[in-house]
């Protein structure tokens, strides 16, 4: 009978191959993982590509589980969303432009603000004066009038595509004055 008793808590264990019951086994494993964080970090770094490929394949094969896990994580970690949004403002702007262009059937091809600036320079397309690249871009903040905004030559609302050919750098105030003209 003694081989069915956990050596730590004297509870009943389920398998014949272990000295611990399931809860003690989990507790022991958790303590080992905490004490050996470098082992897992090094393992991940050595096998990053293999692990990423496995996770990608699993997520593609189990989209519902993947979406549910993401929703649960975001719900339990609202600070992550704030941090991500503050670090990815350009991505958010791109998503918004793309969503609007596709909704209206105007067409979209990805581009970055760096591509716009390297193609067209940092002179405002409307007034031909230099754009202050350090000025805030959000309307209402001090100095936003001279900050960078990406202007669509043919507005998305009037059928213009969201493509590199249809955009130009402008000052915030020049873009606001132009509106949908």
Short description:
The protein is mainly alpha-helical and 181 residues long. It is built from 8 helices and 2 strands; from the N terminus they run αααααααββα. The protein starts with 21 loop residues before the first helix and ends with a helix.
Description of the molecule:
With 181 residues, the protein is mainly alpha-helical. The chain folds into two domains: 31-87, no CATH class; 106-178, no CATH class. The chain contains eight helices and two strands, in the order αααααααββα. The protein has a two-stranded antiparallel sheet. α3 (48-61) crosses α4. The chain is elongated, with a radius of gyration of 27 Å. The model has no long low-confidence stretch (mean pLDDT 88).
Characteristics of this structure?
181 residues, mainly alpha, two-stranded antiparallel sheet, 6% strand
Derived from helix and strand composition plus strand pairing, the structural class reads mainly alpha
Report the β-strand fraction as a percent range. 5-15%
Q: How many structural units, i.e. domains?
A: 2
Mean pLDDT figure: 88
Radius of gyration: 27 Å
| Largest beta sheet: strand ordering | 1-2
Number of helices: 8
Indicate the overall shape: elongated
Compute the separation of the termini in Å: 87 Å
